[in-house]
Amino acid sequence: MNTMGINLLRACALALCCALAPVAAQEAFPGKSPIEITVLFPAGSSADVTARALADGMARALGATVLVVDRPGAGGAIGYRYVAAQKPDGHALVWNSNSISTTYHSGQLAFDYRSFDAVARVLVESPLLAVKSDSPWKTLADFIDDAKSRPGKISVGNSGVGSHTHISSVALFRAAGVSVIDVPFAGAQVVPSLIGGHVDAMVQLAALTANRDPNLPDVPTAREQGYDVALDAWRGIAVPKGTPKPVIEALESAIRNTVASREFTSACEKFLVKPAFAPADEFASIIANEDAELAKLMSVIGMKKN
Fold first, then answer.
1. Are residues 186 and 258 in the same domain?
2. Residue 166: which domain range?
């Protein structure tokens, strides 16, 4: 073969290698590098424990190491900033929630949900107005009537200023036409504060939702009791914007398999949360639609800054 023919073969071989390189890189995911899930709450919280159950299942499905790292603070802003700045290769995930919208619209975050690609919704938590068992209030109507007779006297704990539980609380009492004292805590401190009598009630988990929580079937929703409030809280996985679609699909598949497993369901039952898988496209629509609704609500109640 002459020199021209040899050079042509070399050029063709080089072109073929270049064409196959992206495919090979995609097929290599997740490779040897560990996958890291950033949790926006401290160790021991329901968010942390359910994230670890998810990580265990994903590790088995992907044949990879999946780590959970807690990066709490600033209503989730610290964790969101960290993940948004990472390489979009599927190895940096965020255990995101409604907080991506509340943190942005309250001015704690400079970017919104569009800085991430949705991977999958994983579970749903139901915000709940809860009181001690020995309190004088046995129904929501009891609580509202008392609050109306003593405006600004009853204290209600939540997981922090601008948190979903805070927004849910404000929405409920605005709909009911009553004034209470909002008391923000770090998430893990709310229940002990209620039990210890430091606050009169708390908004934490179960019945300010569109439908009754199957874990608490006897607890009526606020809507059933005449107050137009329905704010389901969700958790899911998102990745930095620009993550390749095949990588997102691999992560989505691993999450789907995990959410369907008995191990993950059992972990959710301990914290009264519901497995609620939704694929990437559907999850992206859920986030976008809710972001618009939360922006309106936060604007009405004077909490919207961005």
1. no
2. 129-225
Distance (Å, whole) CA 235 – CA 242: 21
Report the C-alpha gap between 220 and 32 in whole angstroms.
49
Question: Minimal CA–CA distance to 199: which of 138, 155, 140?
Answer: 155
Amino acid identity for residue 205 in this structure:
L
For the stretch 185-244, pLDDT in tens is: 765 566 666 777 778 887 756 467 778 877 778 888 888 888 887 778 899 999 999 999
Q: What is the distance between the alpha carbons of residues 106 and 210, in angstroms, rounded to a whole number?
A: 24
pLDDT score recorded for residue 244:
97
Torsion of CA 164, 257, 120, 228, to 10 degrees: -40
82, two tokens: 């960290």
Q: Give the distance from CA 241 to its chain's centroid.
A: 17
pLDDT at 15: 46
> For 70-87, how does the pLDDT look when each residue is reduced to its tens digit (9 = 90+)?
999 888 999 999 999 999
CATH code of 269's domain: 3.40.190.150
